[in-house]
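Lecture 7 notes: from sequence to structure.
We start with the chain below.
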Amino acid sequence: MANPFRLLDEDPSGARRGELKLERGLVPTPAFMPVGTAGAVKALTPDQVAANGPAILLGNTYHLLLQPGHQLIQKLGGLHAFMGWQKPILTDSGGFQVFSLPKHELSEEGVTFRSEQEGQPTLLTPEKSVEIQEALGADIAMAFDECLPFPCPEPVAAKSIERTYRWEKRCLEARKKADQRMFGIVQGSVYEKLRRRSAEQIVGLRFDGYAIGGVSVGEGQDWMKEVVAWTTPALPKDHARYLMGVGLPEDILEAVERGIDLFDCVIPTRYGRGGTLFTSRGRIRIRHRRYRRDKYPIDLSCDCYSCTRFSRAYVHHLFEANEILSQVLASIHNLRFYERLMQQIREAVSAGRFSALKTELLATLKHAPEAR
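Predicted structure tokens for the same chain:
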């Protein structure tokens, strides 16, 4: 199949704009993927997600394997039909979740873990990960890799990237669906030499796109910036680059400047459900008593359903009353904030002014309006 990614514009800063042409639609990049781990973006219906602009969602192999099972989803028409989402879906291989479990056994064959639900031992191999993702019918499947913790000794990381290379090669060999794209994942912890070595190995396997893994495991923004800066020059310029598990708006801006095209994270909806809202003037904690009589919308510049219909006082009241609608309205707003952010980024790249936009946004993103 032809390369699904097309590079459209480059900014002097290193930021880029492009598009991913997939079976179920076009994804303008840089793009943020809301996380629908178990086949749903928490607190929102598919229509509510779509109304806020995202062109692609993320689902998860590990969670859908455990409940309700990939074979059942396949029988019911695949993940798109199952969850009522007709745009593209990318599925994580399950590697991050498996390696996050307190008890797992690693071998050359794969990883054995115990189900959170039943406690039964399950072996997840590269071949099994591909089988599950093909059954789910994802537009983009991720190769199965070994996700390293932070900190990680260099000798351990060096051994790990060799295993990851072998596993990802097996993923390609296991593919059966001609219409499903697959992205490879670069690992190597926080070691420049290992990151470059891993990138060289994975690019040599000729995937449809490339991801940088292991940068949302507690290493912090400084290390994230370093790892991305080391790795992106080693990835093909004409292929999509995906930074897994990132993140906060300020992290996205830093990564876009370093040539990243795709992002995913639970932050917009997780923060929303907890009452933290992103605005053009910084984050606000809507449960703060100062919003009890506030007649203004969450963000005066936002065009989302929550901001065009309701006041901060109303959303504050819903949280204080423990109404489910509080989480819905907050999640709608945060998701729309992220989509508007990505649109601003794409427009700035096309106009050659990404650096100016980044400076403007960082001046507000890290400060909360409560302090003003």
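Points to note: The mean pLDDT is 94. The CA atoms of residues 69 and 322 lie 33 Å apart.
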